[in-house]
Specification:
- The termini are far apart.
- The protein has a single domain, classed as Immunoglobulin-like (Sandwich), CATH 2.60.40.
- Strand 3 and strand 4 form a beta hairpin.
- A four-stranded antiparallel sheet has the order 4-3-6-7, with no helix packed on it. A three-stranded antiparallel sheet has the order 1-2-5, with no helix packed on it.
- By secondary structure, it is an all-beta fold.
């Protein structure tokens, strides 16, 4: 057994970059935001971690689960309200154990009632 969740996973899911607001709805209070990450490639002890052993990737913002997607595709989408958010990701292995959190990313989300008013 690879020590009780050595899938503490060096969750290299260092939410490498936050792509930002990708879609808004006029007069919406939320925006769809894409977070891009690098999936973990090894267990904490250095043993290789095959992607097929990652059941889910989860995204937490401000301590709340905001998105969950099957596998580890490299990006995850969440609908967030306007403002500042502290976000991190975890992986869930096929044995249903959740990794330790990735690095935390601070993200500012802007929501525009009129997309033409959005700064370039």
């Amino acid at each position: 057994m690879k020590i009780l969740f050595m899938l503490s996973l060096v969750l290299l899911a260092v939410l490498v970059r936050c792509v930002g607001v990708t879609n808004t709805i006029p007069f919406a209070a939320t925006a769809n935001v894409t977070f891009t990450y690098q999936a973990a490639t090894e267990y904490e002890d250095g043993t290789p971690l095959p992607l097929e052993e990652i059941k889910y990737t989860r995204l937490y913002c401000d301590g709340e689960l905001v998105a969950q997607e099957a596998g580890a595709k490299g990006d995850i989408y969440a609908e967030l309200i306007a403002g500042y958010h502290s976000c991190y990701a975890t992986h869930v292995a096929t044995n249903d154990l959740e990794s330790i959190p990735s690095n935390t990313v601070e993200k500012f989300v802007e929501v525009y009632a009129d997309m033409s008013a959005r700064p370039e």
